[in-house]
Design brief:
Subcellular location (chain A): Cell membrane
Membrane topology (chain A): Multi-pass membrane protein
Oligomer: heterodimer
Order of helices and strands of chain A: HHHHHHHHHEEEEEHHHHHHHHHHHHH
Protein name (chain A): Cation acetate symporter
Order of helices and strands of chain B: HHHEEH
GO molecular function (chain A): acetate transmembrane transporter activity; symporter activity
Strand content of chain A: under 5%
Largest interface: A-B, 47 and 50 residues
Number of domains of chain A: 2
Number of domains of chain B: 1
GO cellular component, one term (chain A): plasma membrane
Chain lengths: ~550, ~130
């Protein structure tokens, strides 16, 4: 693709991110500034920043790609990504802010006073953070390949380096402003093109999304075959293709189904209940996304920057509204993608639909190219902001819980700014290496797995820790190990293991429906069995978590 | 956050009004009961936690029925998914559009009701029954 605007747009977003980061650097002077933005961030800024941080590559590219491929069943991804904030609001937001904890390991220490549990939580924060970072970097690689023809590795490296540098130099204070700016950029980058595209679709005479005689190519398309495959056309004829062959389709030709590329046919796409895992898969996805959000490390850190519990609640509500507003858009891209970019269903690279659609719909005139550049810039904003947030939290726990002890400082002491920078470098390097070496899956699916791990480890810890007096440190640790451990195992099998079939595939690909109840059950059972270990100050802690600040206790 | 000191140390500067002295003393007593974990204080906190948890659980049930029942509904009665609303089939309308305002509405209701629970709690602490 030779779009003269894309590269400047991406460079502009990257530079703006760095510039705001350096501007913030001049303001950030103390360790507290670095880690928690000194708690002087107003709720509106904070909500936009949380939204900006949360809407990652999975939301920006992945959701539209999944909808293009699988249809109505994957609408549960955006619904669940938004509903996660409702669960967070109902069960966690205000008490967590009042606890004074700013990372999950902190919460373990405040509530249960256990160093061992703290270490376990640290390990899970780092695992979830890295699992979530890898698809962001892979999305960056995909974007650069798609829009600028650059090598895949360059995009992943570029985002990795920019984010690591920004986090290491600016810390949290700086990125609060970056994130808020990036929420609005992302919203604009999807909303403006979609208006033009819907108008164009109207002017085209509203071509049907699921035509009765199968999808057809809107324009002449040629593709180069990469793997041996069998094409099946809607009329039942088949054609064998070999690597290196060039396929050419004329406008109006029917779109074949390709063996080895998992897509839903028209009726399955339109109507619910036809995805691979069936009802189990759907409910598992619902559980993972509804309950996983509260356990994501980069989401929780933000709550500390609210002045009090009531503000934390209001901030969460604003975030829910902002995130919900955003999620109207990817659905439209997925649906329009079926009409205008059906070739992605042949290649299977549906994550690129958001990037390719503007030019596919509006043509490669100036308007189409400008809008494509805007979308690419928005995509880069998505990678930069989510990765910054994730890396800040990963670096935060590494510097306070791993490096601080090496430096022979007492427990509970915050690491120094230098520790934080070292931790940011380490925390950034690992996912870059992983992104370059691990095979690429659908962006949203990997993120879905990170949600499943969070839902099976930190969700029970937070919910029971906040609402149930009898939780003990051993109970919490056992629950995290059982539920979270099972989810981690499922993730590793999904990413690294052989393809599975039948029930085991459903259980492993969407583990939340069994790992979340397992974690809760083990946590409650072991806590009841170790009743003597209930912290003696649980009454004081409960008072602190739940009493409104206006009492000034 | 500024911390008001009570007891030892520099006392908080207050304007002395006759009626307020009585109120303040009650207020302080209730606060002390909370802070010292007496039976009364403990019962107060338990009541608040129970009220907030009940509220959160009730609203979760609303969401579980409103959204969580949808996959089951579509599976049991496939006819529902072919209903069209302004030319779009019902599952797309519900999941792609209606779900988000619904979530925000539930969230708004929670914030309103949770703050009311807290105000009730504060009122009880500030004006204990004699």
């Amino acid at each position: 693709m030779d779009n003269p605007y894309t590269v400047p747009a991406i460079v502009a977003v990257t530079l703006a991110t760095l510039a705001i980061g350096f501007y913030g650097l001049r303001l950030a002077r103390t360790t507290s500034d670095f880690l928690v933005a000194s708690r002087v961030v107003s709720p509106t800024w904070n909500a936009a920043a949380i939204g900006g941080e949360y809407l990652s590559a999975a939301s920006f590219l992945g959701v539209a790609g999944l909808i293009l491929k699988y249809g109505v069943d994957v609408l549960w991804y955006p619904v669940g990504f938004a509903a996660g904030y409702l669960a967070l609001l109902l069960f966690v937001a205000a008490p967590l802010r009042r606890s004074g904890a700013f990372t999950l390991p902190d919460f373990c220490e405040v509530r249960l006073h256990s160093r061992g549990l703290r270490k376990l939580a640290t390990a899970f924060v780092v695992f979830i953070g890295w699992l979530y970072l890898v698809p962001q970097l892979q999305g960056a690689g995909l974007t650069l390949t798609t829009v600028a023809g650059g090598p895949y590795e360059l995009g992943a490296l570029l985002v990795g380096v920019v984010v690591t540098a920004n986090v290491a130099l600016g810390g949290m204070r700086a990125i609060t402003f970056v994130q808020a700016f990036q929420y609005w950029l992302k919203l604009t980058a999807l909303a403006v093109p979609v208006i033009f595209m819907v108008l164009h679709w109207q002017a085209d005479g509203r071509p049907p999304v699921t035509p009765s005689d199968g999808l057809t190519f809107p324009a002449a398309t040629s593709l180069v075959v990469e793997h041996h495959a069998t094409l099946t056309f809607p009329d039942g004829s088949t054609q064998e293709v070999r690597a290196g062959e060039e396929l050419t389709f004329q406008a109006g030709d029917q779109v074949p189904h390709v063996s080895g590329v998992d897509t839903a046919n028209d009726l399955d796409w339109l109507l619910p209940g036809n995805d691979a895992g069936g009802l189990f898969g759907t409910y598992s996805l619902i559980l993972a996304t509804f309950l996983g959000t509260m356990g994501l490390p980069h989401v929780l850190v933000r709550f500390y920057t609210n002045p009090n519990g009531a503000a934390a609640r209001r901030t969460t509500l604003v975030v829910l509204a902002l995130v919900g507003l955003f999620y109207f858009l990817p659905t439209l891209y997925g649906v329009l993608g079926r009409v205008y970019t059906p070739q992605l269903l042949i290649t299977g690279e549906t994550d690129a639909v958001v990037l390719l659609l503007p030019v596919a719909v509006l043509g490669s005139g100036m308007l189409g190219q400008m809008l494509a550049a805007l979308v690419a810039a928005g995509a880069f904003a998505a990678f930069l902001s989510s990765s910054s947030g994730l890396l800040t939290s990963v670096a935060g726990v590494i510097s306070t819980d791993v490096l601080a002890h090496a430096g022979d400082r007492g427990p509970g002491q915050r690491g120094s700014v230098r520790d934080f920078r070292v931790a940011a470098l380490v925390g950034g390097l690992v996912p870059v290496v992983l992104a370059l070496n691990v095979a690429s899956l659908d962006v949203s699916q990997v993120v879905g797995l990170a949600f499943a791990v969070a839902a099976s480890s930190f969700c029970p810890l937070l919910v029971l820790g906040i609402w149930w007096r009898r939780l003990t440190d051993l109970g919490a640790a056992a629950g995290i190990l059982a539920g979270g451990g099972a989810a981690v195992g499922a993730v590793l099998v999904t990413i690294l293991g052989p393809p599975l079939h039948g029930w085991s595939a459903a259980l492993i690909a969407q583990p939340a429906a069994w790992t979340v109840p397992l974690a809760f059950a083990v946590m409650v059972a072991v806590s009841l069995a170790t009743r003597r270990r209930t912290p003696p100050d649980v009454g004081t802690t409960m008072l602190r978590l739940h009493a409104p600040e206006s009492l000034r206790l | 956050m500024e911390q008001l000191t009570t007891g030892a140390g520099t006392p908080e500067r207050t304007r002395i009004v006759l009626a307020e002295v009585v109120r303040r003393r009650d207020h302080d007593r209730a606060r002390a009961e909370l802070a010292e974990q007496t039976q009364v204080g403990d019962a107060l906190v338990r009541g608040l936690v129970r009220a907030q948890l009940a509220l959160a659980l009730r609203l979760s049930v609303v969401v579980a029925i409103g959204l969580g029942a949808l996959p089951l509904l579509f599976a049991i009665a496939p006819a529902t998914s072919t209903i069209k609303v302004v030319g779009i089939s019902l599952p797309w309308v519900l999941l792609g559009v209606v779900a988000f305002p619904f979530l925000v509405a539930v969230g708004w209701a929670y914030v309103y009701l949770a703050e009311r629970n807290e105000q009730d709690f504060t009122a009880v602490v500030r004006r204990p029954e004699r």
